[in-house]
Specification:
- With 309 residues, this protein is mainly α.
- It is 50% helix and 4% strand.
- A two-stranded antiparallel sheet has the order 1-2. Strands 3-4 form a two-stranded antiparallel sheet.
- Helix 2 crosses helix 7 and helix 6 packs antiparallel against helix 7.
- The radius of gyration is 36 Å and the shape is extended.
- It starts with a helix and ends in a 12-residue tail after the last helix.
């Protein structure tokens, strides 16, 4: 009886004196639990969404890559790899010679103008002389006729064929792609192009290629319509560099890397400038922070409890 009375009195005392405060604490605790559960659900949904998007991107990336009978190009130590490394301009000049004497017979370079060569691979006078070697159709004149004239710096490198049909007819139905952006158009472009040019070999047992096709393990499917064009001493470089097959492939790949990324060196220079400027700004911000907040960080704050009246 006494125990029951004590429990009743204790319950009544709790309700009368501490009821609102207790109920508020219970409500806050319940709200905190609900927010914690909601945050967990939100983070879970975000994680699942990010995982799904990543899986989709991975699947799409793999879907556009070569599959089946294809060798993956190894990664070579190119001179332009790295944040502060520029393109080898001597190699680019030799690469232009390779394109002019070997590749231009079939492949176009329609998005590269002769003015782009100035102060990159050639001097202005040299670029003008190169442009004047070709005949460009111009017009119409006062009588409405088209005429041929020597090329100028403003002209773009002409295509070897007048149209796509003529290109296919001259190459057994295969269309030689334009090389202006070929490095960016292929996965692992620079390594792919170098491996493709140097990877011709006899087909393995059980693999046959059609008439007018050649086997290259780096080309999707293995059968390619372009014959091997890179050999030792296929041309003579102006600077006397030995024209081995690997050297020729390296130089044309470096040149095509530039045609695909004409702003490459300018981008590297801008990166160096940006790092320098942001480095100075970070030092100033750090000094200002230390100077402005040093008083606050070293100030001791003393709180005096309020006395009861």
């Amino acid at each position: 009886m006494a125990a029951s009375l004590g429990r009743v009195c204790k319950s009544g005392l709790l309700k009368s004196n501490y009821g609102p405060l207790f109920n508020q604490q219970v409500h806050n605790f319940s709200t905190a639990n609900q927010w914690s559960r909601g945050r967990k659900v939100l983070l879970t949904c975000l994680g699942v969404t990010a995982g799904g998007i990543s899986a989709l991107i991975y699947a799409l990336d793999n879907s556009v890559k070569a599959s089946g009978l294809v060798a993956h190009a190894p990664t070579y130590n190119w001179s332009f790899y790295g944040v502060f490394n520029a393109l080898d301009h001597a190699s680019m000049r030799r690469g232009w010679e390779v394109y002019k004497n070997v590749c231009s017979a079939c492949h176009s370079l329609r998005y590269v103008a002769y003015r782009h060569l100035v102060n990159v691979t050639h001097t202005e006078d040299e670029a003008k002389a190169i442009a004047e070697e070709v005949e460009i159709q111009d017009g119409p004149d006062d009588k409405g006729n088209y005429f041929m004239r020597p090329g100028k710096l403003s002209d773009y490198v002409p295509s070897p064929y007048p149209n796509e049909e003529a290109a296919r007819a001259a190459n057994n139905g295969a269309y030689p792609p334009d090389l202006s952006f070929i490095i960016n158009a292929r996965h692992n472009g620079e390594n792919y192009v170098f491996s493709l040019l140097t990877g011709y070999c006899d087909p393995p047992a059980g693999v046959s290629v059609g008439e007018g096709q050649y086997f290259n393990p780096y080309f999707p499917g293995g059968a390619i319509g372009m014959a091997q064009v890179i050999f030792d001493e296929v041309l003579e470089f102006e600077d006397g560099t030995p024209a081995s097959a690997s050297q020729v492939a390296k130089d044309i790949t470096t040149f095509l890397m530039w045609t695909s990324n004409i702003e490459h060196d300018d981008r590297k220079k801008l990166t160096i400038k940006a790092i320098g400027v942001f480095g100075v700004l970070m030092a100033l911000v750090y000094y200002t922070k230390r100077h402005k907040w040093t008083v606050v960080k070293h100030t001791k704050l003393l709180f005096t409890p309020k006395r009861k009246q």
